[in-house]
Amino acid sequence: MRKRAVLAVLTAVAGLAGFAVPGAYADDNVGDIQVDSVVVNGGKNIVVDTADKTITVSVTATDPSGIWDADFNLWRGPDGTDPYFSADSFVEPNENNTSADCIASSSTTSTCSKTFTFEPDWWLTNADAGTWKVEVQASANDGSYTDRWAYTTTRIQRHSKLTANAGPEPIATGKTLTVTGKLTRANWDTLDYRGYANQPVKLQFRKAGTTTYTTIKTVYTSSTGNLTTTAPASEDGYWRWNFAGTSTTPAVKATGDFVDVQ
What pTM was computed for the model? Predict the structure, then answer.
């Protein structure tokens, strides 16, 4: 099947992967082991287009006896309508490590890393965009261990595109300029890009010879993601659209379109 398995199959796979479906989400810590930091995708949101996206999660942990191993789980839910779902359930052994690779920086501290591949053509769907929790497990050489169900969070977002076109050009001073564009984002269900409807996008202008854009007005996208508005032409410069982004979609700026005003 192209998309994810039913929940019963999912939870079974999650168990095989070494993670039990959380009940009370209770953290567990035995011994002196400490988690110093966790970094997901270099500290950036995970932005996925219509192709596979591989990211790295790493943990730096410390224990007097040294670090033996670590593992991670990216998950979301449950909240009544969004059941528990684990990205780790879909990590194939021939694609990713079953546990993290650890590199010691001293006799007590190691940084352990593991990769995850997000696959829109298999399990990733539009409903998966948003905030995910990051579970971290780390084990020490003396048997100490820690399990933090939600040590941190990350965002998985649908890649966005934005265009801009201003005209007519050249245009006489004082005449009305029309600026159009389109805001689209990756659709993981159909593996293409679709318009992002009813989103506020700023129309901005930069005078020729300067480096700063000024916001002229805010326009909402249509049901198909299209943008259109008018503005008076007063001087040579660049017109662009600027989208601030949402929790499911990253910010994006269109390339400025130069207009010659005569």
Answer: 0.86
